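Example record used in the benchmark description.
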Amino acid sequence: MKPLQLLQTNCWRFKSILRRHDTFVAFLSTSLNKKKKASGYEDVNQEKYANLVRTVTTSKSRRQTPERIFEEDSFLYGKVMKSKPEERTSEPKAPRKQSPLDNPNKATLAMENLDPSFPLKFSLPSRSQLANGNIPSVTRILQQTMPMEQAFYLERWKQRMIMELGEEGFIEYTAAIFSQGKSFHTQLEELLLAKEGFGKKQVELEDASGYLASVQHVLLDVGGVKSLESAVCHPDLRYLGLLDCVAEYRKKLCVIDWKTSEKPKPHLRNTFDNPLQVAAYIGGVNHDKNYNFQVDCGLIVVAYKDGSPAHAHFMDPNLCLYYWDKWLLRLEEYTEKKEDKQ
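Model output (structure tokens):
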């Protein structure tokens, strides 16, 4: 290329660069001079909320403790105003009318001084034999005052069984359960009488029901039978019942209640109202003049149809007193319901 042509080309390129530079400078100047969009934060009183901003931003790096959280809540929301809790009427912890479980007017006889003609067995009195009309049974009182939750589960079980078996099938099922329980108690009574030397026939384990086989390990600790299938009546509180057995269990005189179950009941709470029933029978024995001894312990034995080892739930004197108070509450509830109907 000739020198003159080269010079002309370079001049043209230089002018092009200058034009681009001027365009960029003009665009930049226009952008910088453009009015900024108004921000809402400019109107905020920065001094007023400075402490709040500082608290929120610094708390992120501080260890959160219950005390620290309460401080932040107090700062953000103000002082907590504690209102007085709403008063609720709860079930009384103790019965309104106290009645002793034991009988201070009855002496507790030593075991060796008891009449050898035991075991005692009294029949339930007929209505004509009752001086002041009908006296409710322990079973009836507990059924009439059953807690709502317990009644709900019982009714749900009943309806489920009716759905599976039908009305007639459920009636047959309950009749069979009752018959099995009655047979178990009869066999058990014969076994205990024979063991104490009062019976003539020894029950063979091969002929025994699964329930009887289930309680064999418990019977090893049972002796000194004082009463079997005997009626008991509390003359002051006016209730009666038919207790299964009064005997020694591991050297402690107990009211023993034999129960049957198809499901395991390894804990005392699984037996529902049975502890209250035992406590009621203990109070009845202690105040019934037909019995010349007192009892302060209880035992609930749950036997199983398949012969698996029964669960034995021992109730010491303190536990018996605990359930005695619960029984008195249920007795008061029954009396109130009866009076409301009259």
